[in-house]
Amino acid sequence: MSELGKVAPSHLRRPALVYVRQSSLTQVERNTESTQRQYALVSRAVELGWPKSAVKVIDEDLGVSGASAAGRTGFADLAAQVGLGEVGIVLAIEVSRLARNSSDWYRLLDLAGMTDTLIADSDGVYHPAMFNDRLLLGMKGTMSEAELHILRARLTGGIRNKAARGELRTALPMGLVWHEGKITLHPTEAVRGVIAAVFEQFELRGSARSVWIWLK
């Protein structure tokens, strides 16, 4: 069945939701092309038959990881609207934008299947109530979750190898710096003076709040 063949009048009577997400604020700042591609899904919804006025963009989760639904207010709002049968189609550039956790993904598929809501990505349009489409969406979700696991494993492995060589450098508290592989006091005398004064005042005043008031 073609993409347009899956879009019925009952779907077009309900709004289309475009879900936009990047995993971190760094990605939001640097991967601008990806963000633009996601916003461009509005045009895809129009091509599928929705008037532009009926296409809503949910982008509250920009800079939030998709590893869990926790803290993703945009995804929670999307799932709630789907569960209430208020959405005709959900569009995302790829499955990983919606969820990288199988439990969250299958919960959304169940809701979409029960409420006759379509899901679309860059590859096609799917109806979660249809066996073949649900099977394909399930595989996409599994691959998305596996990809996250692989990325984490690579990152953790790199950190451990660096630590084993004694080359791992982590962020230090204010006033300390890395110098030739060792942790030393900040080279700027003014910085050292302020930090020393803070500790002196804490010893005199006995509380961090009192020191904070003194600093003001």
Summarize the topology.
Blueprint: H1 3-6, H2 9-12, E1 16-19, H3 25-30, H4 32-39, H5 41-47, E2 55-58, H6 73-83, E3 89-91, H7 95-98, H8 102-114, E4 118-120, E5 125-126, H9 131-164, E6 176-179, E7 182-185, H10 189-205, H11 208-215
Description:
The chain is an alpha/beta fold. The protein has two domains: 3-152, Resolvase, N-terminal catalytic domain (Rossmann fold, 3-Layer(aba) Sandwich), CATH 3.40.50; 176-215, no CATH class. 54% of the residues lie in helices and 11% in strands. The protein has eleven helices and seven strands. It has helices spanning 3-6, 9-12, 25-30, 32-39, 41-47, 73-83, 95-98, 102-114, 131-164, 189-205, 208-215; strands at residues 16-19, 55-58, 89-91, 118-120, 125-126, 176-179, 182-185. A five-stranded mixed beta sheet has the order 2-1-3-4-5. A hairpin with a 2-residue loop joins strand 6 and strand 7. The longest helix has 34 residues, at 131-164. It is elongated and about 75 Å long. The model has no long low-confidence stretch (mean pLDDT 86).
